[in-house]
Design goal:
heterodimer; A: 501 residues; D-Maltodextrin-Binding Protein, domain 2; two-stranded antiparallel sheet; B: mainly alpha; MetI-like fold; 14 helices; 73% helix
Chain lengths: 501, 291
Amino acid sequence: MATLPLASRLSRRSLLTGLVISGASAALAACSSGTSTGAGSSTPASSAAAAATTAPAPTSAAAATSAPASAAATATPAAAATTAPAAQAASSAGKTEIQFYSPATDKLGNKIIAELADGYNKQSTKATVKVITVPTSNHYQKYVTAIAGGQSPDAIMTYDYTPIVDWASQGFILPMDDYQKSMGIKESDYFPVAWQMIFFHGHLWGFIQEFDFDILAWNTDMFTKAGLDPTKGPQTTDELDKMAEQLTVKDASGNLTQIGFCPWITSNTLTWSAIFGGKYYDAGADKWTISTDQNIATFDWYLKYVKLLGGPDKVTTFQKLFTGNQTPFYSNQLAIEGMGEYTPITVPDQAPKLKFANGWLPTASGVKFGTDQTGGGNVFVLPKGAPHQDLGVDFMSYMGGNAAVLQWNVEENNVPPVQSVAFDPNFTSKVPLMKDWIDVLKQNMMVPPATSPIDPFFEDNLSTARDSIIYGKMTPKAALDDLAKKVDDQLSQFKASHPNW
Amino acid sequence: MTKNERRELIAGLGFISPWIVGFLWFNLYPVIASVYYSFTSFHVVETPQWVGLNNFQILAKDGLFWTSLVDTIYYIVGSVPLDLIAALFFAVLLNLSLPGRSILRTCYYIPTIVPTVAASILWIMLFNTHGGIINETLGLFGIPEVPWLSSPNWAMPALILLSIWGVGSAIIIFLAGLQDVPSTLYEAAQLDGAGPAHLVWHITIPMVSPVILFNGIMGMVGAAQVFAVPFIMTGGGPLNATLVYSIELFRNAFVYYKMGYASAMAWILFIFLFALTLLSMRLSQRFVHYE
C-alpha cells in the first residue's frame, strides 16, 4: 500500500475525530428525507342513469356571481408542502396534535380549510389539528410514500376521487365501518350518487364534502352576433351540432379563427359519453362496459367535429393562441364549452368582460335532458398507520359535518352531497346557480364515477383511445375494443394479486 | 500490512464511511431488493408475494411495454448519433484558435446546467405550433407550421432535436480528447497536402475514436433512461408517441403501485443496456483506434 504523507502524520486523536465526524455525517445522511416529485393526476370516471325532467332556465353569469363575495379560487402554483398558519397554533395542554394532509393549494380552498381547522381546534377538547398542504399533483407519491414509510398523517383529504378506490384496494386507507354508527352516518342522509362514492366493496371508506361535474356554458355575445337566441342553450346534441357549425369560423387558409364547440378540448370523454347514455362501468354488476353502442356513438359524434374543425392538429394550433387564464372561451373565441360547476364564480375575476350563461348539458336522442356525470369530489380518508385514528376520524367527521359542508359548498359554489344541506335555505338562497343541478340529483340523473380499483389505468388509456380515434388511427369500435381488452388484462392481474377484492 | 498501513486503512475507511454507508443503504440495497421484487407481486404496503417469472410473462404480452420499448429505441437511434455529430462538430469548432473562444465554450456548456424543468418549459414555448420561435423561423422560408408536440408524428422528432440542447458535457469531453491529438500528426499531413476535411476525417476522428465510443455509450445509457423532458413536455403523448420506457416504468410504480412489475421492467432495461453496451464494445474493435 502506498503511504500518503498526510496520512502518516495522523495522530490517534485526529483519526478518532475524523471517525466521529464521519459517523455523524453518515447518521445525517441516513436520516435525511427525500421529497417526492410531481406526477399526473387524472380526471373522472363513469356510469349512466336517466330520468325525465323539465328543462332549467339558463342561469346568467350575474346570478352565478351572486355567490359569496370572497370567492376567488385562483389556483396558486403548487409549492412544496406548507403548513397553514391559522392552524399552526400550538396545541393546548392535554390536547393531542394530529396531522391532516390537505390538497388545498388554491387561495379559496386554503382559506376555508384554515378556517375550518381553526373552528375544530376551538371546539375540540381532545385534539389540535395541524394542516399540511400537499399539492394534488403530488398526492399519488407523497401520500403513499408517507403511508408506506410509517409516517402516515391522521387524516387525508383529496380533491381528486380517482385514486380512492385504488387506495382502498391496495390497503393504503382503512374502512371506517367501526365509526359509522357512533358518528351517525346514514346512507339516507346522502344523495345516492354521493353514497356510492364513499361506500363500496361493502365498507365505508370516507366522508365526502362536495362533488363536481360539468355544466354547459355559452357565450351570449357570440350567440347574439351569430343570430342565435342568447337565452337558450342547446338541449339536444343535434341542436348543439347545428349551433357549433354556425359559430365556427375559418380563415382563407382553412385555419380556425373561432370555434363553436369541440368535445375533446372542453370537459372530458366520460361526461360526453353520459349525454349519449353511455357509461364505462356498471357499479351494480361490478363490470366494465366499455365497447357499447352508446360509447361508440359518442366517438362517432367526436368524428363529426374532427370533420367540421379540420382535424385535431388544426384545433391544437388554434388552442396554442391562448395561454394561462386567456382560454378560448374567456377570449370570446370558443362559443360553447363544458365547465366545472365551481367555475362560474371565478369567471368575473379572470374574464371580467365575458358574458355567458349556463344550463344543463344537451343530450342525445333518447337520453333524458339533465343527465350529467360526476367525476367525484373532495373526500376525507383514514390512512393506514394513522397514529391517532380516533382523533383523525373525529376531525374528519367535523369536516364532513353539516356546518363545514355548508360553509365549503357556499363559498366554493359546489353541490353538497348531504341532502339536508343541499335543501337548506342557507345553501339554496346563497348559491342559486346550483338549484337546477340539485334537481338533477333529486331525479338521480347524475352518473357516478367508476368504483373500480383500476380506474386510474382506465382513465389513462381512455385518453389514448380518444386520441387514436380523433387522429384517425382507429375506428371508435376498434379503439374501444382495444381499451376493453387492456382493462380486462389489467383487471385479471389485479384480481390475481387481490383475490378478495 | 504494517501498523502504519493498517492505521491508514482504518483512517481512509473512516473518512469514506459516509459514502460507503450511503452506497450500501441507498444504492446497493435497493438494487438487490429490486431483483427480488421483480419476482414478486408487490403493492407498496402489502407483503410481497412470490410469483416467479409471472411479471416477465405479463410484460411480454403488455402492449404498452412494447410501445415504450419501441419509443425508447426510436429516441436512442435518433438522438445518440445526432448528439455525437453535433457535439463533435461544435468541439472541433471550439478547438480552433478563435477570438473569445472561452466565452463561446461557456455558452455551449450553459444549457447543461439549466434545470431540466425550466428548460422543458422553455422548449414547450419554442416548439409552440402557433407563434413559437421555431415555427416562426421556418415560416420565413415558407415552411408551414409544424405541430411539434401535439402531433403523434412530430412529437418524438421534436424531443430528439431538443436533445442537442444538452450536448455541452459531450463537447467538453471531446475538447479534452481533441487537445490530446499530437499537433505533429496534423503538420505531417499538411506537408503531404491534406486539406481541412482530410485532417478531420483521417486524423481527428480516428484519434478521438475512443472518446466517440465513450460518449456514444454514455449517450445510449442516458437516452434509454430519458424521463423528465418527455414527462414534462408531452406526458408520453400524443397517442403514446413519446411514451418512453422510464415514463411507463414510473406509471406502473407510482401511479398503479405495481412495484414488482416496475422492478421487472427496470431489470429488463438494465439487461437491454448491458447488451447494447457489450455490442458497442464488440463493434468498436473495428473502428476505435487506441494509441
